[in-house]
Amino acid sequence: MIKFKMLLAIFFLFFFLGADNEAKKETLDPAAALKYLEAKEQVLEKWAKVEVRRGTDLFRKKNQAMQKTVDELIDYRFIARYIIDDIWESTPEPEREELFDKIRELFTELYLEDTFYNKAYEKKYIEKGVRKKYIRGVPESVYIVSEVQVIHKGRPVIYELIYHMHIVDGVYKVFDIELDTVSVVRNYREQFRRNLKDQTVDELIKRIDKVIRGRRKGNNKPPKPAKTDDKKSPEKQPEKPSSPK
User: Fold this and answer.
1) Which of 30, 90, 104, 234 could form a disulfide with 156 if both were Cys (CB 3.0 to 4.6 A apart)?
2) Which backbone phi and psi does 34 adopt, to 5 degrees?
3) Distance (Å, rounded) from C-alpha 59 to C-alpha 40?
4) DSSP single-letter state for residue 119
5) pLDDT tens digits for 40-98?
C-alpha cells in the first residue's frame, strides 16, 4: 500500500512538472511577430531615406544603425549552420567564425540593398500565420507575406516576399526569406554545398567575399527614382537572389 502511494505521488509529480514545462513553451504569435518585423523595418526605412556622403560621421552612424537593426532581426547563426550543415561542426572555430561573418555580410547586402535602398520602394503586409516543418531544424514557425513594389530599370516591379520567423531567446528572428517562392537559404545551401565538394572552407569564404564585392560594386549608389509611364502596368518579374558561380 505504501509502495502504491509512493508511485502515485511520483506519477502526479511528473505529470505536473510536465504540464508546467508545456506552459513555459513559448507560443508563436503571428501578430506579435508582424509587429516586431514592422517596427524594425520602419527603422530601416527611416535610415535608408537619409542621404549622406561616404566617409562622413553621419555615413558611419547610418551604417551602424542599420546593421544593428538587421542583426536584431535576422538569425544569422541558424542560416550559417543550415547552409553548410554538417560541415559547420567539423570546421575549426576561426574558419567557422570567418565564414559566419561572410554569410552575415552577404545576407545583409541581400536584405538591405535589394529593398531599402530603392527610393521608390513600397511594401504592404498581406498575410500571416503559423507553419509546421517549413524547414529542417524548425518544427514550427511564423510566416508573414508581404507585397513589395520597387522601380527596376525604370519600370515598376511587384514581387512577393515571405518572411519565416521563429523565437530565439524570447525574440522573433527571420531565418529565411522567400522571393516569389524562391527560398534564399535553400538556394544558397544548394550552391555552397555543391562548391564545398571541390573546395575548402577557405576557398568558399573567398568565393562569398567575391560575391559580396560584386554586389557592392553594382550597388555603389542607391537607385534614383525613375520616371514611369502611368499607363504601364507593373511587371511581376523580380530578380532572383544572386548566387555564387
Assistant:
1) 234
2) -65, -40
3) 19
4) T
5) 999 998 888 888 898 899 999 998 999 999 999 999 989 988 887 767 777 788 888 88
Structural contact between residues 192 and 205, judged by C-beta atoms closer than 8 angstroms: no
| Inter-CA distances, 150 with 7, 27, 95, Å | 66, 35, 37
- Cell 528572428 belongs to residue: 173
Which CATH number do you get for residue 68? 3.10.450.710
Rounded-to-integer distance, Cα 165 and Cα 190, Å: 21
Query: What is the maximal distance between C-alpha atoms in the chain?
Result: 88
How many domains does the chain divide into? 1
| Residue entry with cell 568565393 | 207
Domain presence at residue 230: no
Instruction: Give the span between the Cα atoms of 41 and 47, in whole angstroms.
Output: 10
Q: Is residue 244 part of a domain?
A: no
Residue 179 in domain: yes
d(CA 170, CA 190): 30
Grid cell listed for 88: 559547420
- Domain assignment of residue 110, given as a range: 28-218
Phi, psi of 161 (to 5 degrees): -115, 130
Task: Give the SS3 label for residue 183.
Answer: strand
Quick one: cell of 24?
513555459
For the beta sheet containing 155-168, the strands, ordered from the edge strand earlier in sequence to the opposite edge, are 122-135, 138-152, 155-168, 171-179, 182-183
pLDDT digits (tens, 9 = 90+) for 90-144: 778 888 888 888 888 888 888 877 666 655 678 899 999 999 999 988 999 999 9
